């Protein structure tokens, strides 16, 4: 028995549903690049914040415990020399050689930072490790960590600068062009 005209079931037809799905797909296509850019920037900024916290931990431990503390790139948490993006280790460095030797205590091990892309350390004297003295100063060493996204986009690159006194500062976009500059004012490159 058919329903009377005033009791018809209201709803969307197949054509209307397909039209709504098409509009949703177009909007998703427009939003996707923005989301991937946001995700990459978020990963770089998180790696930058973790690195700053690690440097501050190393410096504060050196001061508070009156010991020499080093930090270096380490894939396994037991030896230095790996790229910084593969992880790092903070350790008591009794002989100030920038290497984790037998009898030296490991203070913190950090895992690889895959979402950040690459992390490059450049320093005066081209040393692989950063050494903090009991006064919180570096061992006559200044340098910078450059964090590069997986796609190498310079607009997402960031830098953490460490001066000889052990102080840390972050790169900034001083001229407003969307690319952060290094300590000399040159745009960061990956």
Describe it:
This protein has one domain: minor pseudopilin epsh domain (minor pseudopilin epsh fold). With 190 residues, it is an alpha+beta fold. Strand 7 and strand 8 (168-170) form a beta hairpin. A four-stranded antiparallel beta sheet has the order 3-2-1-5, with helices on one face. A four-stranded antiparallel beta sheet has the order 4-6-7-8, with helices on one face. It contains one helix and eight strands.
The strand order across the widest sheet is 3-2-1-5
Instruction: Please tally the β strands and state the result.
Output: 8
Helix residue percentage: 25-40%
What's the CATH architecture? 3-Layer(bab) Sandwich
Rg: 25 Å
In DSSP terms (H or I, runs of 4 or more residues), the helix count works out at 1
Q: What is the H-and-E element order?
A: HEEEEEEEE
For this structure, the CATH topology is minor pseudopilin epsh fold
- Average pLDDT, rounded to a whole number, is 86
Q: Name the poorly predicted regions.
A: none
Main β-sheet, in a few words? 4 strands, antiparallel
Helix-strand makeup class: alpha+beta
| CATH class designation | Alpha Beta
CATH superfamily: minor pseudopilin epsh domain
Q: Tell me the count of domains.
A: 1
What's the N-to-C terminus distance?
A: 73 Å
Q: In one word, what is the shape? A: elongated
Strand content: 15-25%
Give a short synopsis of this structure.
This protein is α+β, with helices and mostly antiparallel strands. The chain is built from one helix and eight strands. Helix content is 27%, strand content 21%.
């Amino acid at each position: 028995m058919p329903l009377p005209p005033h009791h018809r079931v209201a709803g969307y037809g197949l054509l209307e549903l397909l039209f709504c799905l098409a509009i949703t797909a177009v909007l998703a296509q427009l939003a996707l690049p923005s989301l991937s850019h946001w995700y990459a920037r978020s990963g770089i900024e998180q790696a930058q914040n973790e690195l700053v916290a690690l440097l501050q931990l190393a410096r504060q431990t050196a001061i508070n415990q009156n010991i020499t503390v080093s930090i270096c790139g380490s894939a396994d948490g037991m030896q230095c020399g790996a790229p910084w993006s593969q992880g790092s280790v903070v350790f008591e460095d009794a002989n100030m050689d920038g290497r984790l030797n037998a009898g030296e205590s490991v203070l913190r091990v950090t895992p690889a930072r895959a979402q950040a892309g690459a992390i490059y350390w450049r320093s005066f004297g081209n040393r692989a490790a950063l050494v903090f003295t009991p006064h919180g100063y570096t061992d006559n060493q200044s340098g910078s960590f450059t964090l590069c996204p997986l796609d190498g986009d310079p607009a997402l690159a960031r830098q953490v600068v460490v001066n000889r006194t052990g102080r840390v500062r972050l790169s900034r976009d001083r001229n407003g062009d969307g690319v952060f500059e290094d300590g000399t004012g040159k745009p960061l490159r990956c």
